[in-house]
Structures
1.
Amino acid sequence: MISGILNIKKEPGFTSHDVVAKLRGIVHQKKIGHTGTLDPDATGVLPVCLGKATKLCDIIGDWDKTYEAVLLLGRETDTEDTSGQTLKEREVTVTEEEIRDIILSFQGSYDQIPPMYSALKVNGQKLCDLARKGIEVERKARPVTIHKIQILEINLPRVCMRVECSKGTYIRTLCQDIGEKLGCGACMESLLRTRVSEFRLDGALRLQQIEELVQQEDFSFVQSVDSVFMQYDFAQVMKAAKKMVENGNRIPKEMICNMCQEKEQKCIRLYDWEDRFIGLYAYMPQEQDFKPIKLFI
């Protein structure tokens, strides 16, 4: 079984689940998961985890992301993008200066109401399934953070912008909120995800490229599980702690070696006596031992 992370370049027309389904056929294994839903019409970076790395799905999904989006002013739709039914159209009379000021005002934290056409669940049902039945339910606003917005081009009624944001941010909803604040309405025309943490578009591969590499028995495109934890210091456990490791127990400080002793180790990436990655451990000063945080054995 292959364990690791793939940086997939999702193409239009595929759901995130479609990508996973196709990869199962390409690499011939079932244990695969994606790290966050991209709309079918959206394109770009979609990290996919295989084997033991599926434990990373939620972690990677929580990391910051970067998008390039085209905002279409003057049109509102039921899906908040151009794939939906038009609800209202208005003339765009705002100036470029007003557009810049309003868009940049969304930098920082704000409460965003998730769209009905989304994979979020209410009482066990996906909002998008309810929306397709014509059912609209109340959604609570959730805090999101827009770290940075860069306006790339204004060619009215379209605005191309780059958005760096926190997890849970819906760019479709951001576009609609911008349109509402401008008073002319808006929706999202296109969306490209260019980054999920350190996974970037220039290193992403299309499914066809993955398939060709697998046929050549070239798996160099698979990124190791521990590669996303390089910000933590390296440490190694003694073989005498084998049972503790296998049982997921805490490990006494004296059984950890090859660790930097110059500073207090709040969190380490731990390897076994044969240099195989075990997982992340946190140091407990009072107990003088290391507690497992996330295991990949």
2.
Amino acid sequence: MPAGRTCLPTWISGIGAVTGYGWGTKHLWDGVVLGESAVVRQPAGFESVRGDDVWLSLISDEGDPADGPSRFSQALHAAAREAVEDARQRGWRPGGTIGLIHAFVLSDVHLWRDFYDRPSRRVPRRRYIQLMPSTPVTSIMIEHGFHGPCMSVVAMCASGNAALLTAKMWLDAGIADDVLVVATDVSATPENVRHFVDLGVIVVDRPPFDACRPFQEGSVGFTGGEASVGLMVSGRPDGGYTMLRGGAMSHDAHHVISLAADPEHIGASYRRALDNSGVAREEVVYFNAHGPGTRQCDTAESQLFDELFPDAAGIFSFKPLVGHCQAAAAAVEVAISCLAYEENLIPAPLAVAPGHDRLVSGLVPRQPGPTIKSSIGMGGYNTAILLDEPSA
């Protein structure tokens, strides 16, 4: 987004969530408020990753088979449906043109694994069509009678923020009146987890608060998670949890995994997000960081937080609670932030070691004002959005 261009007001008016806490937004909020991590010891199925305990936050097998043959399609449908129903209950009424953006990194890995495991690689035509990432998205459009623009967004772990910013651009341009954003990642299969372990970024051999401690001493990386999150984004304030004031996206163009030593492009995305949103850095109250608990990312974000937001009340990341949900990583934290604005509470993870002097620790009353949400994707994707009071 060009610097100097101020966006029109936009609101997030409905939320749906399927996470390791359970099927439904209430389970997500109750879990983070209690401070209990959804990252738990998995009893079986990951022996190829490690011979002993594996800690992950996985979506349970409780979906409706009518929504598709896999947890991926069922979770996507459930999160989308809950977001639409929640928005309606809060007073939102559909505009003339409703679009849909689906954020994902890997599509239905379980169905594709089943396909390639078949000796003949042959399945019925209907089963093959279900492998296409377009099928569950098209099914949502059919279910709700939406006829606006429809597309998918892939920006690695920054996909949720990227989808929200794309939705906002549609609204600003008059392409749509409302946009349902859904971010889904149900890819924590043994083979995928094993390769992330080999890359040295995911930690599966210890409990979450031993492994992932964003902006604290002793953090060794992130724990893995799955989620599907729906967010109804509207150009009208009816039912708004928060105002989405704007944001920015950029790319490091440096390395396929590692961050650059100088986080200039991450910082540039933060500055452009402020400019795009019409928010002065002095107004920012909270920094909801990407915060995966890795040394590179936490160092970059804490450095920029101190440089750009010296007067902000605090920095936090929800990843020790929900796990790192890849394509849904940003969206699940945005959903929690929406509820934080609603309930005037921030359910941050409890600090377990010495760390940043402005780290938010545990459940605390929320101070009013803007929150900048950072999300950084493997390969150099940088995104930032500005959330604010719904009546700001």
3.
Amino acid sequence: MKRFCTASPNFGRETQDCCKAHDEAYAKGSGIPRGEADKALYQCVKANGRPWRAAAMYGVVRAFGWVFYRG
């Protein structure tokens, strides 16, 4: 399985699907603002039954995501 959410642990399929969408939103030319992409990641992970993981991941992408954002 390809890993998404650069530098994060490989938590599982449900998180990886959310991470894939987040990585696509961060890609050059996506036109999606970083804040919206981060919020969508949070909501996706939380919706998959991982509220604590969602909060932790959201904190990390808000603090360090600017390094990877190309949108």
